[in-house]
């Protein structure tokens, strides 16, 4: 048995990379005025969950979000 699968039914864990620092830096006023502290201006996070085909209420605990930056700067949705 391998550690990777292409079948979501067999997956124990879904790893989701999220470039939080980049999202905060680029979203603040077109990159000219980055926002920090819970990154209230992040835009990618708003669309992230729409792109996660296997993210549901019952599978949320099987998603591991790997984010860049300090935890204090991460959007609340992925903390």
Secondary-structure map:
Blueprint: E1 14-18, H1 20-27, H2 44-51, E2 63-67
Parallel strand pairs: 1-2
Would you kindly provide a written description of the structure presented here, covering whatever features stand out?
- There is one protein chain.
- 20% of the residues lie in helices and 13% in strands.
- The chain is built from two helices and two strands.
- The longest helix is centred in the N-terminal third of the chain and has 8 residues.
- It is elongated, with a radius of gyration of 14 Å.
- The model has no long low-confidence stretch (mean pLDDT 80).
What would a concise description of this structure say?
20% of the residues lie in helices and 13% in strands. It contains 2 helices and 2 strands; from the N terminus they run E-H-H-E. It has helices spanning 20-27, 44-51, and strands spanning 14-18, 63-67.
First-residue to last-residue Cα separation: 32 Å
Shape: elongated
SS field, number of helical segments: 2
Beta fraction:
5-15%
- Tell me about the biggest sheet? 2 strands, parallel
Label the structural class: alpha+beta
**Elements, N to C (H/E):** EHHE
Uncertain parts: none
Structure summary, number of beta strands? 2
| Helix amount | 10-25%
Mean pLDDT: 80
C-alpha-based Rg, rounded: 14 Å
Strand order of the largest sheet: 1-2
